[in-house]
Amino acid sequence: MTDFRFGPVEIYLVGFEGERPDPATLGALTDLLASGLVRLLDFVLVSKSEDGELATIEIDAEADALGLGGVELHAAGIAGGEDIEEFGEQIPPGGSAALVVLELAYARTLAERFDASGGVLLRSERVPAPIVNAMVDILENDEEGE
Question: Taking the model in full, what pTM does it have?
């Protein structure tokens, strides 16, 4: 069986008020990490000045101050300059965000099994949770109306 070092990766840009994410935002991340469903590959704080300049802070420089001491980055630096520039476009002037790169650990096992069986993943698509929930609400309302 093929052993992949990493599974699929998702990049999240999480905006927040102020210069640092609040404890609840970080708690959502650390709870998920503790579950083992995902691994944290990289975490970068990004802020945008009023004139559009981006500034970054790597988590390893601020882990303790953020309450993330002991959290391991499995591929620090994987969020490169191009990623930061692209995602940074979404941050409003004067705003801040965390660029969080997560490996979907559960999907690594699935990818290994597909590969071992000769299966080839032809496409994968993520539908955001608000859209799924709205679609299900519409379907349920349609069923009730019948």
Answer: 0.80
